[in-house]
Amino acid sequence: MRVKKFMVVLAYIMIFLFQLGCANSLDNTDISQAGLYDAGSAIDEVFSLFIMDPRQEPIDLSNTAVGIKVSKLTGVKLKTEYISSSDEKTKASFMVATKDYPELIAPHNEYATFKAAGALVPLDDYIDKYGQNIKKIYTEQELNMLRDPIDGHIYYLTPYRKNSRLLYPSSGFYLPITALRELDWPKVTSFDQYFEIIRNYVRANPVYNGEPTIGFTALTDNWRIYTLFNAPNYLAGNPNTGGVWVDKNYEAHSFMLSDWAYKYYKKLNELWNEGLLDKDMFTQNYDAYKAKIASGRVIGFYDERWQIQDAIDMLEKQGLFDRVPIAMPVVFDGVNKEAYNGISVMGTGAGICITRNCEDPEAAFKFIDKMASEEVLKVVYWGFEGVDYTVQNGKFTLTDAQLERMNDPDYVRKRGLGSFWLFPHPDGGAKFSDGNYVFPQDTAEYMNYKYKDYEKEVLKAYNLTSMADLMAPPLETPYGFVWDIPIPDSEPEIKAANQKASDIARKYTARLIMSAPEQYDLLWQEYADEMENANYDMADQFLTGEIKRRVVERDK
Fold this sequence. Notes:
The chain has about 550 residues and is an alpha/beta fold. It has helices at about 5-20, 25-35, 65-75, 90-100, 110-115, 125-130, 135, 140-145, 175-180, 190-205, 225-235, 260-275, 285-295, 305-315, 360-370, 375-380, 400-405, 410-415, 445-450, 455-460, 490-515, 520-535, 540-555, and strands at about 45-50, 75-80, 105, 170-175, 205-210, 210, 215, 245, 250-255, 300-305, 325-330, 355, 390, 395. The radius of gyration is 25 Å and the shape is globular.
């Protein structure tokens, strides 16, 4: 919507006066050095933006120091709103029913809902005419990968780019530092060896801090049970491509009834009957799971790093560095590859879209393109020279104090730095035209700072420069991730079959693992029969078609 410039300037002066009175000395220095309120700075547009991803922390982007500078550079102020719960489907359905759309929306998992309702504006012509910055950071092949499978138009520029250099493995089978040190730092790759280490450790150390040591646990709370379901696929050497693995012919196959799943759950069944498995594994919620890991008494588990970061933080705060878990690239015997660092390709998950309710979609797109410019990206990811970073002979560097602030979640949030912005950006590891990294996280100073002393001991023991180097490098696939391929509402039978199969898997996985050893095979057959009757693999053909379409689009 159009906003009169003098009204917005007046509003910004009021914000400035308020911050001047309330901010600490560092904040005041930041504002004065940033030059945010130069005469002539004016806002031409205000756009409403709704963020559908419940994982995004609510933040008033345009009223942060970085956001104010971005508004000055782009002439646009954002009025940002976030979903208040995790029920994205309900919120999306309400918006569609009332046609009460914001001007910009990051639809997360509900892109297909808004697309089917005709709520989104195609971007193709705007990209051709005005996307000078967009076309610098997305190749023609990448843009083709974003085309809608139904009408061939592009409706968003995905923010899911190739990873920066990884500090830690994306996932793995974890063991605590103390167990690895006692064994003289083995690189554990064998499935049987991994569980034998757990057995031996628990036998030698049955109690920790007055409580029983837990040999192995798993996350099963709500949708997070996918980590239990996905583990067999990783053990077989495959990356996370959702509920399927993809063969060399680009065909998708469900692994829910695979020999890999049979073997993994049978091993957990052995541990259960030996008393080595967490007895609360199928009843504890996510917070209890993290708290258990943070207690230091869990020896083994499989998970993705982002899900256990809170537990690792708690272990560090308690000084329990020996109990911090380290990911290992465990695979079934005979498997000669692994993919625990995942896939490093551009994803196709939805980014910010322009809706039909936007009065000036051309101006909205020009704003999105401006957000991909070097001058804006430098502010968004680096902040302000002399405060957030230092320039030495043209090179962006970070002092110890700046590194500390860059790693302070409260400072980053209040500042409005980095990942809060879901707008188009380059791949991790990319550089500006002046040779500086786009992301501070790619610098040597940042990586060295991030590793604590106990982690440097691990790096030295395994002769690594990055903890992620324990695993094979991330894979690049011509089709992306697969887990980001949505099943459209036009395929209700597939969606219903997927839900039924998920419910059956949840029920039987618990029964299989907790059964008496002699009952395991009978239960597995019962499980397989129910899954077959539910058409558990009905999505395979649809996903295969989408995978092959992505490969064709990429190669155009």
